[in-house]
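Researcher: I need the complex structure. Ligand is DAU. Inputs:
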Amino acid sequence: MILITGGAGFIGGNFVHHWFERQAKLGLSEQEPVVVFDKLTYAGNPNTIAEHLKAGRATLIQADIADRDAVRQALAQYRPRAILHFAAESHVDRSIHGPGEFIQTNMVGTFSLLEETRQYWGQMAEAEKAAFRFLHVSTDEVYGSLSDTDPAFSETTPYAPNSPYSASKAGSDHLVRAYHHTYGMPTLTTNCSNNYGPYHFPEKLIPLMILNALEGKPLPVYGDGLNIRDWLYVRDHCEAICQVLEKGRTGETYNVGGINEIKNIDVVTTICQKLDELRPRADGSKYESLITYVKDRPGHDRRYAIDPRKIQSEIGWAPSETFESGINKTVSWYLENNAWIDTVRSGSYRDWLAQNYAGR
Ligand code: NAD
Ligand code: DAU
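Model: Output:
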């Protein structure tokens, strides 16, 4: 049994799918079940993992990681052999509008989870204790921003977070590090670049552009559109996490990325071209005509890039998707999954769009 915080979100939900598909591929006679511990904020959606919940392979506990009683009870009841910590407030723009939730969940919540895990782990028998893992899922944004000529982020790049989101993730990384160093807790940390793929909440660049384009709405590109992100298909990230869980050295951090640096404007035009092929507009115009440059994100990091040599050489992980193959799958998924899309576009989603884009 493993416990997954944030398992109803984008990456956590994809991870639940990946976990069971991977075990099926390996031909295991019995599948190891998961407990998803998720507050179900606006970003959490049980529909994402509905088939596993229905089949009884996954159990959902709706609770806050900062609720220590709820965490204690879940650990006592399910006795997981590992905790995979995905739960977080994850959107940079929201952290600019309201940083408080980010400090609360990403720092106070991670601290609460670590404290309860320390108690739980401390009471284990020696063999169980040695086998236990706390895997913390983090981001490349903790390293700050690169110029066009800087080398990519490695595990020894100094932390220099620039947004309330990345600062709160950096704080959580430091806590995880301290719990290993001070208490000997068997922790692992992954710092990954930008993910994309199915079940991505449409506040983030790629799903926002796909859905706005399909509705004939403007495609809001921040600033000059030349900021660079290092894109990784979400299932490649999920596989990296599985392999780090199996083979990672405790106390270590592993950077995860696909050597896939792309300028934002090129991401958006690629999406437009895919949609021109798959869902041409009724009036014959190109989706690119919807691109609109808008006021930049405050403190917008210019470039992220991951040096993945450590995870490649030590763990043997490498991504299996190119951006071309991953974006094809992603655009097709959004064209075919209206039911899921409808469940996430609630009133609060519309309020967010008004708050973030009205003044730009
Ligand atoms: P997401 O926002 O889609 O999902 C977050 C999930 O956490 C949701 O299900 C939400 O309900 C849950 N959650 C939020 N606050 C909680 C709380 N207090 N208690 C319990 N559950 C809570 O995020 P994501 O994009 O899936 O990111 C998952 C993790 O991966 C985050 O830690 C993020 O920092 C990290 N990460 C994301 C990316 C990316 O590109 N999306 C890249 C690298 C790392
Ligand atoms: O690098 C990893 C990080 O990637 C994760 O830690 C975060 O959780 C995740 O949200 C993501 O952060 P970004 O800020 O890079 O992702 P976002 O999709 O919000 O933006 C990607 C780029 O696109 C960024 O340069 C800002 C730009 N952008 C974004 C939106 C929403 C636009 O130009 N227009 C938009 O409307």
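Model: Summary of the prediction. The chain is about 45% helix and 15% strand.
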